[in-house]
Amino acid sequence: MIVKTPDPPYYTVVFTSVRTEIDEGYSEMNESLWLDAQKLPGFIGAEAFRDEDRFGVTVLYFKDLETIHEWSKYQKHLRAKEMGKQKWYSDYRVRIAKVEREYGME
Description:
By secondary structure, the chain is an alpha+beta fold. It has helices at 26-37, 65-72, 75-88; strands at residues 10-19, 43-50, 55-62, 89-99. The chain has a single domain, classed as Alpha-Beta Plaits (2-Layer Sandwich).
């Protein structure tokens, strides 16, 4: 589903990754983090996909950089980052950007 975002400006965190074959708690952590992110006042929503080659993209939308900073310091998120480096991902990139313009089908 396409996230309904506010009028720009707002911010996005784009997380691209390649999963390993190790699951060991990944699904549970992912679900828990999703529920927690929704509680942040500046969190707008997210879009995600993963293909059959384990390549995935998650785009998270936030109202401001302060919310992104708060999310980055969240203890469970920090644990997930460590587990990702150790087990769940063979490669990943995080990109943070300010959205200044948006258009599409209305």
